[in-house]
């Protein structure tokens, strides 16, 4: 298990790929794979089979996981994508303005 610099509920900006520059909220984090799922980013089409009577099947759009190295945390104070520093006690700090997360 490796530690992640982002947590569920954080706002991040995508650094590369087809969704470059998009800000979104982290829905889920997978530390074992080193991946995150961000709301309304990396949308893929999924084929779904109806499982219950009356449940619709077909194509649905869902967010897919992307590597955590492709996202950067957005500071709530300065509003910019920034690297994350750490203080004693596990407190995350913005490298640009020094604000604590």
Structural class: mainly beta
Runs with pLDDT <50, length 5+?
none
* Approximate strand percentage: 35-45%
Distance between the termini: 23 Å
CA-atom Rg in angstroms: 16 Å
The succession of helices and strands, N to C, reads EEEEEEEEEE
- Shape estimate: elongated
Number of helices: 0
- The neighbouring-strand order within the major sheet is 6-3-2-1-7-8
Q: Percent range for helical residues?
A: under 10%
Q: How many strands, what sense, and barrel or not for the largest sheet?
A: 6 strands, antiparallel
Return the average pLDDT rounded to an integer.
Answer: 93
According to DSSP, the number of beta strands is: 10
Characterise this structure.
With 101 residues, the chain is an all-beta fold. Helix content is 0%, strand content 44%. The protein is built from no helices and ten strands. A hairpin with a 6-residue loop joins β7 and β8. The radius of gyration is 16 Å and the shape is elongated. The mean pLDDT is 93.
What's a concise summary of this model?
This protein is mostly beta strands and 101 residues long. Helix content is 0%, strand content 44%.
Please give a handful of descriptors for the protein shown.
mainly beta, 101 residues, 6-stranded antiparallel sheet, two-stranded antiparallel sheet
Set out the fold topology.
Blueprint: E1 11-14, E2 23-30, E3 35-38, E4 43-48, E5 58-63, E6 66-67, E7 71-74, E8 81-82, E9 84-87, E10 91-94
Antiparallel strand pairs: 1-2, 1-7, 2-3, 3-6, 4-5, 7-8, 9-10
């Amino acid at each position: 298990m490796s530690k992640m610099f982002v947590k569920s509920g954080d706002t991040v900006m995508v650094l590369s790929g087809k969704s470059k520059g998009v800000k979104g909220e982290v829905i889920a984090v997978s530390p074992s794979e080193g991946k995150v799922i961000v709301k309304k980013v990396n949308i893929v089409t999924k084929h779904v089979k109806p499982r219950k009577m009356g449940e619709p099947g077909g194509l649905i759009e869902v967010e897919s996981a992307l590597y955590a190295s492709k996202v950067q945390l957005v500071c709530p104070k300065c509003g910019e994508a920034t690297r994350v520093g750490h203080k004693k006690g596990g407190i995350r700090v913005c490298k640009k303005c020094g604000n604590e997360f």
